[in-house]
Amino acid sequence: MAIRCCSCRSTLLLLLLVSAVPISIIVSLEHATWTSSPNRHHLRYRSLGLVRECAKWDASGGRFLVSNFFGGGLAEVSDVDVGAPAERTLMREPDVAGNVSLGLVVDGGRSRVLVVFSDLFRHRYAAVGAYRLDNFERIFLTRLSGPEDETSFADDVAVDSDGNAYVTDAKRNKIWKVGSGGALSSVIRSPLLERRKEWYHLVGLNGIVYHPNGYLLVVHTDGGDLFRVDTSTEEVTQVDVEGSILGGDGLELLSPTKIVVAAFRPSARLVESSDDWRTATVTGTYSGPLHRVAAAATAKDGKVYVSHLFGGRSHVISEAVFSPLSSAK
Ligand SMILES: *[C@@H]1O[C@H](CO)[C@@H](O)[C@H](O)[C@H]1NC(C)=O
């Protein structure tokens, strides 16, 4: 039993390791990282939580929305240049109390945000909720899996142009599809997605983004794979990636030809495609405060910001400036 409980995200192991690192070491490491890049923008915000999984820029509100993990909901952080702002809790979902809040996506066109909830240790519950961006009232809360179903670990979410949501299952390597009104409409499975089943693949399908040409791009963390999933046919193909995206976590679509893949190390990679994501190339890397463990990326005013899992009294959202890879075409 104890061994089975260990099959949660590898980030949990990291959590234990990192929380053993004295805060003073973290601070001195950061000092070294940041004094070497004084012109970049690092937003440090005060928070009482150890873990923050995902931060996404909400342009309409002029703020980052943050999933507050054990908080089971969402917080906001204003992007101010002076001082360290404090995060403000916006919402806690009482109907999933005890679960953690993970991936989120801002659906600006529908003025809402969607967030994933998961049972961190036992993998016996998964849900996705949608909330209004102006007052964080719930629009829907959809249970994806419960104690009677196979175990699962819902992780991240993307929204297509019709408002359908797609939630990755990092444990069973499938994708739940939920209609814009909140009804669970299908479960996308494919032998390709489920190919990597070895015990050491702790984290499977993870970051997901919707591409306006009608497909999803999804990363498999431990396999280092990138998949392309057609949203109308649900056909899955593997993107042939030149360069490694091993450990890929959160994704962000920067343009139709560019995505960012956040990861443990390096903190983020820039991946580009010139053939509608049949093939792609890793063209740049960014290393931020590695001990904080990058987990998500977001775009704001044409820049990329990476958020990190671990903090003590403060968390960091750092601007990612990519170093080109010489091997890239
Ligand atoms: C997650 O939420 C569900 C629904 O309320 C609840 O039954 C379950 O116990 C929660 N999981 C944990 C680990 O608290």
TrEMBL record:
GO CC term, one of those recorded: endoplasmic reticulum
Signal peptide: 1-20
UniProt-listed InterPro entries: 6-blade_b-propeller_TolB-like, Sensory_adhesion_molecule
UniProt KW keywords: Signal
Gene3D superfamilies from the UniProt entry: 2.40.10.500, TolB, C-terminal domain (2.120.10.30)
SUPFAM superfamilies tied to this protein: Calcium-dependent phosphotriesterase
Protein name (database record): Uncharacterized protein
Species for this entry: Iris pallida (Sweet iris)
